[in-house]
């Protein structure tokens, strides 16, 4: 014979979760989902920043490769002229200082060909003479220690990569590369 109290207990056991148990389970699962979405957002943002940095590094290295086989000074004007000689274009740059104060947008590759699909990036190049025994000198491009036309036997090439996410946005520097090149 089944008593009333055992019948009540068996009905109660079959009813499922209480309202408090359901609310607690919902809160735990909701917290888990929120944490998971924050992780996805963070991973997406970090992945985008990593891709941007990789592209910027490649663009800076492209300038370095484009300058690798150039002479230290112009064959015809020697040290009397710094920067591109009159009438020179990117295709006819024939020495290191021709790249001074150049801005490439769209950026160029190592063969000096514009990369139009990366037009949100810009490459800014400066070339500054430095003393071979003191490469940290003449570091301020806006107020140099000595004139750019001063032959010292060494130059610092600095490439800054700027990124503009939308055409109306202000470009931000995302990468900078510098190296010293000495005359042989």
Give a verbal description of the structure:
This protein is an alpha+beta fold and 184 residues long. It has a domain at 55-182. The protein has two helices and four strands. The protein has a four-stranded antiparallel beta sheet, covered by helices on one side. A hairpin with an 8-residue loop joins strand 3 (154-163) and strand 4. The chain starts with a helix and ends with a strand. 17% of the residues are buried.
Largest sheet descriptor: 4 strands, antiparallel
Please tell me what the overall shape is. rod-shaped
What topology, given as strand order, has the largest sheet? 1-2-3-4
Distance between the termini: 109 Å
Mean pLDDT value: 87
- How many DSSP E strands? 4
> For the CA atoms, what is the radius of gyration?
31 Å
Helix content: 25-40%
Strand residue content:
15-25%
Assign the structural class, choosing from mainly alpha, mainly beta, alpha/beta, alpha+beta, or little secondary structure: alpha+beta
So how many helices?
Answer: 2
Low-confidence stretches: none
SSE sequence, one letter per element: HHEEEE
Question: Layout of SSEs?
Answer:
Elements: H1 4-14, H2 19-67, E1 102-104, E2 121-129, E3 154-163, E4 172-182
Antiparallel strand pairs: 1-2, 2-3, 3-4
Briefly summarize what is shown.
The chain has helices spanning 4-14, 19-67, and strands at 102-104, 121-129, 154-163, 172-182. The protein is an alpha+beta fold and 184 residues long.
Features:
alpha+beta; four-stranded antiparallel beta sheet; 184 residues; 18% strand
């Amino acid at each position: 014979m089944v008593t009333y109290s055992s019948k009540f207990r068996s009905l109660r056991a079959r009813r499922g979760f209480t309202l408090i148990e359901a609310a607690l389970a919902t809160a735990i699962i909701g917290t888990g989902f929120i944490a998971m979405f924050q992780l996805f957002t963070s991973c997406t943002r970090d992945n985008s920043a990593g891709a941007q940095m990789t592209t910027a590094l490649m663009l800076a290295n492209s300038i370095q490769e484009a300058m690798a086989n150039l002479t230290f000074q112009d064959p015809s004007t020697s040290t009397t002229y710094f920067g591109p000689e009159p009438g020179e274009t990117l295709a006819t740059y024939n020495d290191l200082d021709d790249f001074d104060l150049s801005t490439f947008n769209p950026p160029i590759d190592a063969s000096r060909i514009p990369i139009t699909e990366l037009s949100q990036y810009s490459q800014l190049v400066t070339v500054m003479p430095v003393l071979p025994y003191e490469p940290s000198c003449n570091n301020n491009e806006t107020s140099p220690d000595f004139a750019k036309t001063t032959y010292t036997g060494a130059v610092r090439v600095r490439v800054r990569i700027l990124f503009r996410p939308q055409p109306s946005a202000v470009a931000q520097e995302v990468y900078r590369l510098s190296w010293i090149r000495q005359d042989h």
